[in-house]
Amino acid sequence: MALNEYNKKRDFSETPEPIGRKKKDHKKLIFVVQRHQARQLHFDFRLEADGVLKSWAIPKGPSMNPAEKRLAIMVEDHPLDYAGFVGEISAGNYGAGDVEIWDHGTWEPKAKFSDIRKALSGGLIEFTLHGKILKGEFALVEFENSTAKNGWILVKARDKYALDEEYHAEEIPGRG
Ligand code: MN
Fold first, then answer.
1. Does residue 72 sit in helix, strand or coil?
2. pLDDT at residue 25, rounded to an integer
3. Strand partners for 98
C-alpha cells in the first residue's frame, strides 16, 4: 500500500488531482465510486484500506444485480484525499477527462476478512457498502487465471438490496 506509483504517473503542476500522501484511516472506512469520462468511460471503485484508497477501474460500472459480474481492473492505490476529487484532468495528462462522484459512503469488511491486506493479497474480500446507490453485501474476487493481469470481478451478493433487472450505472434514477 504505497502511493509512489500514483505520484509517479502524475505531474502535479499540470493536474488538479491531490498529491499522494498516506493518511490515517478514518474511524469508519470510506468508499467512493467516481465516474471517469476518460478516453474510455469507466467507474473507479475505491475502498479505504491502510491509509490509502485501493482502486479498481470498472468499465461498465457496479451493478446491484447479483447475476451481473463486473470486470474490475485493479489500478494503483490512490490517496484518501482523492475521495473528494471532482473536476477536469486536462488533455495530455494521465487519465485526462472529467471526474465526478457517482456514489460514496462507508464500507466494512465481513468479519473473516477483517485483515484487509491479507484478504486482498488472497484475492477475495466480502464486504458491505453503505452508500446512497450501492447498498448491502458485495464481493471482490481476483481471477485465478494469471493471464488476466490485475483482473478482478465485483459482484453483488443476494440480499434485500439486490435487484433482478439489468443494471446500467449510467441510468440510475435521480441522476443526470
Ligand atoms: Mn479512472
1. strand
2. 87
3. 37, 88
Q: What is the pTM of this model?
A: 0.94
Surrounding ion ligand 1 within 5 Å at CB are 36, 44
Q: Which of 127, 5, 128, 27 is nearest to 77 (CA)?
A: 5
What is the rounded distance in angstroms from the CA atom of residue 84 to the CA atom of residue 49?
16
Question: Distance from the CA of 133 to the center of ligand 1, in angstroms?
Answer: 19
CA 42, CA 34: separation in Å to the nearest integer? 8
Backbone angles phi, psi at 64, to 5 degrees: -90, 5
Cα(78) to centroid(ligand 1), Å:
11
For ligand 1, the distance from its centroid to the CA atom of residue 160, given in whole angstroms, is: 30
What's the pLDDT tens digit per position in 39-88? 999 999 999 999 999 999 999 999 999 999 999 999 999 999 999 999 99
